[in-house]
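for the record, two folds in this file. i put them one after another cuz i was lazy. first one right below, seq on top, structure tokens after. the second one comes after a little note so u can tell where it starts
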Amino acid sequence: MDFLFDVYQQGKINEARQQAERASHKADRFADDIRSLERRLDRLTIVNQALWELLRDSGHLTEEGLLAKVAEIDLRDGSKDGKITRMVKVCPRCGRNSNSKRLECLYCGDSLPDPNLFDAR
């Protein structure tokens, strides 16, 4: 009887090891994804800073004007939360509302408009 219990226990231990190994691999993939996103964020931050400095130095733009525009854009979805919330898109062909993440209308298949340059396909 002890032999069967030992075999059962060993099977459970092996199963737990396999699950732990899969979880470890998944955590490694997530860590890689996070590092990639951090690199992209750093690059975008540098590009945005460069664009701002070019605009500021070549025109009549001020930091106060930039901050006012940031606040205006932030409030477009009705909430000052530092995020751009996706909005409902209206299909130009059938006039029905659609999720802003969709590229085509769920009802008629027509291409949905991009609300701004950064949401462009």
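(here's the note) second protein begins now
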Amino acid sequence: MDNNEINRINQSGTVIPGPGPRPVGRPVDIPPTGTTSFRSVLDAATATQPATSTGTSGTEPLKFSAHAMQRLQSRNISLTSDDVTRMNAMADKAAAKGAKNSLFIVRDVAMVVSIKNRTVITAVDSDSMKENVFTNIDSAAII
């Protein structure tokens, strides 16, 4: 079809059909061929993301919120480096099982831990644990 024929059709009021249908099962390259496609960028990005943590050394260590630090100090609770190492390993296990907020019991201390944020939210000593209800947790671990 040449330009004269297109102009003639436009003047007569006839609707010009658009491009033909895309073949079924053939993905569209965005941006067009010749540049990097969206699909290849997406595939590359998802291939480089780390898998779910299973206790490897590449996981982020637990942090303690300001509230948890205040509770530890006011209640004279001390944790050893071994305690924290075991808590990190348990956080990895909890994450692998899909936990979001977990109650960790280490010796005579209970701590609510956000597994997703890898943050200890609060800490309670054995005296304060008596007749206490822990809410908003979906798992518990005795370390």
